[in-house]
Amino acid sequence: MSQMQKRVAVLVSGGGTNLQALIDAQHMGIIHSGSIEIVISNKADAYALERAQRADIETAVIEKKPGGQAEFEEKLMALLQEKQIDLIVLAGFMSILSENFVKHYEERIINVHPSLIPSFCGKGYYGLKVHEEALKKGVKVTGATVHFVNEIPDGGKIIFQKAVQVLDKDTPETLQKRVMKQAEWKILPRAVEKVCKDMMMAGGKV
Ligand code: GAR
Q1: Between β-strands 58-61 and 34-41, what pairing exists: parallel, antiparallel or unpaired?
Q2: Which of 116, 179, 191 lies closest to 148 in space, CA to CA?
Q3: Domains along the chain?
Q4: Per residue in 34-58, pLDDT tens?
Q5: pLDDT digit string (tens) for 139-170?
Q6: Which of 50, 69, 97, 117 could form a disulfide with 101 if both were Cys (CB 3.0 to 4.6 A apart)?
Q7: Does residue 26 contact residue 35 with C-beta atoms inside 8 Å?
Q8: What are the start-end ranges of the E strands in the chain?
């Protein structure tokens, strides 16, 4: 990695298809202002960890149990500082970070959410549940959003959004897949590049 590149940590909990999109984008040069230095999971069995290992990226597991939220965040912060991380990317990270943590990394944490915020977002809206609710409501257009993380769940400044059509025959699973493919996997890498580039222009570290 070059001296100028921003150091990125990706936080995951599950399958890691968004992480894969970031790894692929890095290989293709779509992401060139930043470099993924570490992938951190709060679940020991997350498949995302295998994706990272396959790409020769360092991994770590920090679980919430038995210590609880405060101890979890303490360990996480210590690792992020040790790795001199500039940007934290939540890519399917299914745990809410405390106000204290988020404030420490103001405008340095981004998240991908599988809806067009402010629809179907906030506490309790994650993963498949978001698509179940969108179908229940009967919306004809949904999508994905990448945003900065602040103390309000899914409430931070929006970086990119992309709309996706809902089809009559959609199930939560088919809709989730289309939103990932057409929106999330495209806008998350673009957002990471944009934020890293903006940070490079602005200079300075966390
Ligand atoms: C993605 O659809 C992501 O947007 C969503 O979980 C999925 C994770 O998939 N995240 C949230 O709902 C966060 N509120 P992945 O592990 O394959 O990237």
Answers
A1: parallel
A2: 191
A3: 6-201 (3.40.50.170)
A4: 999 999 999 999 999 999 999 999 9
A5: 999 999 999 999 999 999 999 999 999 999 99
A6: 97
A7: yes
A8: 6-12, 34-41, 58-61, 87-90, 109-113, 141-148, 158-165
pLDDT at 176 over 90: yes
Contact 169, 128 (CB under 8 A): no
Q: What are phi and psi of 7, to 5 degrees?
A: -95, 120
Q: Pick the catalytic residue from 27, 32, 104, 113.
A: 113
Among 22, 36, 180, 192, residue to substitute to test ligand 1 (most atoms within 8 Å of Cβ): 180
pTM (two decimals): 0.96
The residue whose CA has the least distance to atom 15 of ligand 1 is 16
**Hunting for tokens 């490079």 — which residue is that?**
200
pLDDT digits (tens, 9 = 90+) for 114-136: 999 999 999 999 999 999 999 99
Ligand 1 centroid, distance to 180 Cα (angstroms) = 8
